[in-house]
């Protein structure tokens, strides 16, 4: 059972969302495996990018897509260690910390998407294993990978525009309190996720309780958002679980990050409680409901983009691939002519087509014109 009783309006919202899940599921019936992979990859890249940027990483989605493509060379996920120097040379070494955080998040989401059935029932061992993968590439924090915290920590919101910093949550102290709370949380989750009619509410309570405990020294926010996706995939609601791989949930959390932290504070007043019944979960449930509506709307948009890509000419695809191989650059016509070997007029026509289809940004005018990839 949930630790809170949803109000009438929230129950009505869950019913409305259920209708949206069904509608989205039906719209995806019969899509090709190629289109399904395209939609899942959009969500995959977006979730990695947004979740790491919420924690102050700096890589764009275009750069993360390029890294992912590089590591999937020849259809295989190549070891990061083999390509790390090449990636850092391409993106600049001052981004090493961000690249390492992206790699950890990529590993965790890959495991969740590909091994969801093996990850139920959920266990502390599974959670600690995912945390190990999250930090395994991040040298500064790798010593904490997979182990519960050994020193007090707290959740701090930092507004980089104003410089404001404030404590959002003073979490569970390390040691027996954290260990007991995690044991209780995992047991509650396994007994509830398949029994409650609204799995989105179960996921909401699970993730907030996880964040309130803040069991690890580092990486709790990124892991919590990944576990939210895992909860939805564990759902026995066939409509919700079927569309979750196509939802860029973290993309919309990032766009509302200030509200996200504010709502987290509303739920707890900034204090860990051993009794989850003392939390106020409804504000976070409403936040996630709105995030879901926006995420589901993305599916139709990116299905249209996929259809557009299928209609592009060979020369336009060649020009687009040129951008994908150089995500960090804003390219001008001459750069693309040199890269592709295509006639200048062909390149100009392809750029006009691609910018008209909103696949490229046009920046500047005349001789100063540059183009940049849109993710």
Based on the model shown, name its key terms:
375 residues; mainly alpha; Fic-like fold; Arc Repressor Mutant, subunit A; 2 domains; 4 strands; globular
Question: What is the strand and helix layout of this fold?
Answer:
Blueprint: H1 8-28, H2 33-54, H3 61-71, H4 80-91, H5 96-114, H6 124-135, E1 155-158, E2 165-169, H7 176-192, H8 199-213, H9 220-234, H10 238-243, H11 249-255, H12 257-268, H13 282-310, H14 314-324, H15 333-340, H16 344-356, E3 360-363, E4 370-373
Antiparallel strand pairs: 1-2, 3-4
Helix pairs in contact: 1-13, 2-3, 2-5, 2-11, 2-13, 3-4, 5-6, 5-9, 6-9, 7-8, 8-9, 8-13, 11-13, 12-13, 14-16, 15-16
Detailed description of the structure:
The protein is mainly alpha-helical and 375 residues long. The chain folds into two domains: 8-308, Fido-like domain (Fic-like fold, Orthogonal Bundle), CATH 1.10.3290; 312-373, Winged helix-like DNA-binding domain superfamily/Winged helix DNA-binding domain (Arc Repressor Mutant, subunit A). It is 61% helix and 5% strand. The protein contains 16 helices and four strands. The protein has helices spanning 8-28, 33-54, 61-71, 80-91, 96-114, 124-135, 176-192, 199-213, 220-234, 238-243, 249-255, 257-268, 282-310, 314-324, 333-340, 344-356, and strands at 155-158, 165-169, 360-363, 370-373. The strands form two sheets. Strands 1-2 form a two-stranded antiparallel ribbon. The longest helix is centred in the C-terminal third of the chain and has 29 residues, at 282-310.
């Amino acid at each position: 059972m949930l630790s809170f009783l949803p109000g009438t309006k929230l129950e009505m919202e869950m019913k409305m969302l259920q209708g949206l899940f069904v509608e989205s599921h039906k719209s995806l019936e019969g899509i090709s495996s190629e289109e399904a992979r395209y939609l899942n990859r959009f969500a995959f890249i977006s979730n990695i990018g947004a979740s790491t940027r919420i924690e102050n990483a700096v890589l764009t989605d275009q750069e993360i897509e390029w890294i992912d493509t590089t590591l999937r060379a020849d259809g295989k996920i190549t070891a990061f260690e083999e390509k790390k120097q090449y990636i850092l040379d391409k993106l600049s070494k001052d981004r090493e910390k961000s690249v390492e955080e992206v790699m950890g998040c990529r590993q965790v989401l890959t495991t969740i998407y590909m091994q969801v059935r093996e990850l139920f029932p959920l266990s502390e061992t599974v959670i600690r294993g995912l945390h190990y993968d999250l930090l395994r590439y991040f040298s500064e924090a790798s010593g904490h990978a997979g182990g519960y915290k050994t020193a007090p920590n707290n959740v701090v919101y930092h507004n980089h525009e104003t410089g404001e910093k404030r404590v959002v949550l003073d979490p569970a102290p390390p040691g027996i309190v954290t260990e007991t709370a995690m044991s209780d949380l995992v047991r509650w989750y396994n007994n509830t996720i398949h029994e409650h009619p609204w799995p989105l509410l179960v996921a909401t309570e699970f993730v907030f309780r996880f964040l309130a405990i803040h069991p690890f020294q580092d990486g709790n926010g990124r892991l919590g958002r990944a576990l939210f996706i895992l909860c939805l995939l564990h759902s026995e609601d066939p409509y919700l679980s079927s569309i979750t791989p196509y939802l860029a949930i973290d993309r919309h959390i990032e766009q509302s990050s200030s509200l996200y932290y504010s709502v987290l504070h509303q739920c707890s007043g900034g204090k860990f409680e051993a009794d989850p019944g003392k939390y106020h979960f409804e504000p976070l449930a409403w936040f996630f409901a709105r995030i879901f509506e926006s995420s589901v709307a993305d599916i139709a948009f990116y299905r249209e983009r996929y259809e557009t890509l299928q209609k592009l000419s060979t020369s336009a695809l060649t020009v687009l691939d040129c951008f994908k191989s150089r995500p960090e650059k804003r390219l001008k016509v001459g750069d693309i002519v040199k890269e592709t070997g295509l006639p200048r007029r062909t390149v100009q026509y392809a750029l006009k087509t691609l910018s008209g289809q909103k696949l490229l940004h046009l920046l500047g005018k005349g001789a100063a014109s540059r183009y940049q990839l849109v993710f």
